[in-house]
Amino acid sequence: STRFTGSDIEGLTEDDMEIPETFLAMYAETKAMAEVEVFKACDPDNGFFTIAVAPHQVYGPHDPLFLPALLEAAGSGKLRVFGKGLNKISICYVDNYCHGLMCGADVLQKHSPALAKFYIVTDGKEQYFWKILNKAIVAMGFKDLFQKFHLPVWFLMIVAHTANGIGYLLGKKFKLNPFNVKMLTIHRYFSIENAKRDLKYEPLVRSEEGWNKTIAWHKVYWLPEYQKRCKEGKGSAILGVDKKKH
Fold first, then answer.
1. 53-110 pLDDT, tens per residue?
2. Cβ atoms 128, 88 nearer than 8 A
3. Which strands, in side-by-side order, build the sheet including 9-12?
4. CA 79 to CA 150: how far, in whole Å?
């Protein structure tokens, strides 16, 4: 998110993407500020080494936000495919992210070419976002998104900007905003060649295996909790469904 400008990102490396002057959201801006400070702190001559290793769209069992939020929207019947549903993204299984962090730690030494640099780690091959999401949705027993009408991007952006304006006046923040619309409709997949070269990173878990494990976990642990809340007429439990140890 620290490199997003709102345009498609299709197979770019970190070298191809600069930190922009303006950001799509404060979330991205504050992350970029922290990243810059991490690089400034790197002082090899005094034995202090830094690196930034980031996943793109991390997922996995025990996920408290990304997939549960989308599954909940699908379960309520409110979710629709944004646009044509053909946008591709990079995703990163949680084990791969942990592995990437350890690879980054291994190269924190003097004269390393990775010092004070930014690296993206993912599962490797890009995925069709709406296709893999729909696979999880159908596995939960919810209606296939591709059997419903799609929402045009132009319409979504009008609604999102309107929601932003109303939210500003009311002091509220709505889930539908221009940043989220962009993130759900643009291509955002990356090359991990730099991480492979400098960090010796290779994904340990391929997307198909990681996504299947994630779906299986949510079906066993998330789905019963969601069904229980629906039966009791309770609201969202995003960020709270994973408090139990499983």
1. 999 999 999 998 899 999 999 999 999 999 999 999 999 999 999 999 999 999 999 9
2. yes
3. 9-12, 188-190, 88-89, 127-128
4. 10
Helix (H, G, I), strand (E, B) or coil at 177: coil
**Buried-exposed string 59-93: b where 16+ CB fall within 10 A, e elsewhere:** bbbebeeebbbebbbbbeeebbbbbebebbbbbbb
State yes or no: pLDDT of 168 exceeds 50. Answer: yes
Residue 184 in contact with residue 31, Cβ under 8 Å?
Answer: no
CA–CA distances in Å: residue 97 to residues 38, 53, 200: 19, 9, 14
Q: What tokens appear for 138 in the block?
A: 């159908």
Identify the burial level of 29 via C-beta atoms within 10 angstroms of its C-beta, where 0-12 means exposed, 13-18 middle and 19 or more buried: middle
- Residue 91: phi and psi, rounded to 5, are -130, 160
- Helix/strand/coil (H/E/C) assignment for every residue in 134-175: HHHHHHCCCCCHHHCCCECHHHHHHHHHHHHHHHHHHCCCCC
Q: In this structure, are residues 241 and 225 in contact, taking their beta carbons and an 8 Å threshold? A: yes
Alpha helices in the chain (DSSP H): 26-41, 66-75, 94-106, 129-139, 153-170, 178-183, 193-198, 207-217, 223-232
Q: Which residue has the tokens 């299947």?
A: 212
Name the pTM for this structure.
0.89
Beta pairing class for 52-55 and 118-121: parallel
Burial class (CB in 10 A: 0-12, 13-18, 19+), 192: buried
What is d(CA 40, CA 33) in angstroms, rounded to the nearest whole number? 11
